[in-house]
Design brief:
Protein name: Histidinol-phosphate aminotransferase
Number of domains: 2
Cofactor: pyridoxal 5'-phosphate
Structural class: alpha/beta
Bound molecules: 4'-deoxy-4'-aminopyridoxal-5'-phosphate
Keywords: Amino-acid biosynthesis, Aminotransferase, Histidine biosynthesis, Pyridoxal phosphate, Transferase
Strand order of the largest sheet: 2-8-7-6-5-3-4
Enzyme class: transferase
Number of helices: 12
Number of strands: 13
Helix content: 25-40%
Subunit structure: Homodimer.
Strand content: 15-25%
Oligomer: single chain
CATH architecture of the largest domain: 3-Layer(aba) Sandwich
Order of helices and strands: HEHHEHEHEEHEHEEHHHEEHEEEH
Length: 351
């Protein structure tokens, strides 16, 4: 069988472990530990008795209206809905980066971008963060074949944020579009939506998987100037969001009070998690997301991950070649975090 040559050299993106529900305290893929807003559950029930024999609205208009409203955007034409923000990222890479061209990402960050470049037969350039997760000036340098720059903001795994003013300068210095992947931005104090209005080359992606508690549903979206949305609409799947997801995501956008309340609770727990890890001797990066990145002077990160897993607690052990390793721990409920901290303490006591 003849696959495209690009596939031979490709490494698939491997997401975090997803065991069957119930067995583990799951702190490994930055999901919301709380179930989604009640209005979402009602909307799903209502949609399930709707006309499922019919195709959904290809443009997810009800969702786009609700999202534009919630985010203070001029109208739905500033939004493109997708099957998770991963699909939106796929559309962006497909739309801007072809064979022989390249995209840029910071390192360590979201490795999926590399896979998306590989699929296109394109190349990728990783620019390492410097000085505690700052972007070096070279991240903003233009190059002939560079067609897209992607920046998770807040970044994963660090949870650090590049302030909008600096993002704006970065966008000005680049010739190509700059994607700000705001998957975790609801847990931060600032975002880059205003920049989208000022600069057609700033493209923001968002997801409902994290702050809205809807990872199981698959819904994400792009915020960009209307002519950019119109152009990218040409390459999306015809019916990329299903009727039930559209109804649920629309209800989620109408649940801004729920969102604010849950984010506030999780951010308090995040601070406690960070403080207690620091007390145990961990180096904890100050986080603006719903997870923390930490390293311990013992270097026993993999052993801690394995010990926790044996205790039915899943965190993410991450190893970045030429960089180092560490643990990324998602912010769960207070009880979940207490259980995790207790077992980490127990592990460290044995050393
Ligand atoms: N961007 C970043 C930085 C992420 O960590 C994730 C979650 N793995 C995503 C995008 C994708 O989120 P989703 O496809 O669930 O919307």
């Amino acid at each position: 069988m003849q696959f495209r040559p690009a596939l031979a050299a490709m490494k698939p993106y491997t997401p975090g472990e997803q065991p069957p529900p119930g067995k583990f305290i799951k702190l490994n893929t930055n999901e919301n530990p709380f179930p989604p807003p009640p209005a979402v559950v009602s909307a799903i029930t209502a949609a399930a008795s709707g006309p499922l024999n019919r195709y959904p609205d290809p443009m997810a208009t009800s969702f786009r209206r609700a999202a534009a409203d919630a985010l203070g955007l001029p109208g739905p034409e500033w939004i493109l809905a997708g099957n998770g923000s991963d699909e939106i990222l796929t559309i962006l890479v497909r739309g801007f980066v072809g064979e022989g061209q390249s995209l840029r990402l910071p390192y360590p960050s979201y490795i999926l971008y590399r896979t998306l470049a590989d699929i296109q037969g394109a190349s990728w350039e990783q620019v390492p963060f410097i000085d505690n997760w700052q972007l070096p000036a070279s991240f903003g340098e233009s190059r002939e074949d560079l067609r897209l720059v992607l920046l998770p903001n807040p970044n994963s795994p660090s949870g650090t944020i590049v302030p909008p003013q600096q993002v704006s300068e970065l966008a000005d210095s680049l010739d190509c579009p700059l994607v700000i992947d705001e998957a975790y931005v609801d847990f931060a104090e600032e975002n880059c939506l205003e920049l989208v209005k000022q600069n057609e080359r700033v493209l923001v992606t968002r997801t409902l998987s994290k702050s809205y508690g809807l990872a199981g549903l698959r819904f994400g979206f792009l915020v960009a100037q209307p002519h950019v949305v119109a152009e990218l609409t040409k390459i999306k799947d015809s019916y990329n969001c299903d009727m039930i997801s559209i109804a649920a995501a629309t209800a989620a956008m109408h649940s801004q009070d729920w969102l604010a309340e849950k984010v506030a609770v999780l951010n308090v727990t995040r601070q406690r998690l960070a403080d207690e890890l620091a007390e145990m001797g961990f180096d904890v990066v100050p986080s603006h997301a719903n997870f923390v990145w930490c390293t311990h002077p013992s270097g026993q990160h993999k052993a801690i991950y394995e010990f926790l897993k044996r205790s039915q607690i899943l965190v993410r052990y991450m190893e970045f070649p030429d960089w180092g390793d560490g643990l990324r721990i998602s912010v769960g409920t207070d009880e979940q975090i207490d259980a995790c901290l207790l077992m980490i303490r127990r592990f460290l006591d044995q050393l």
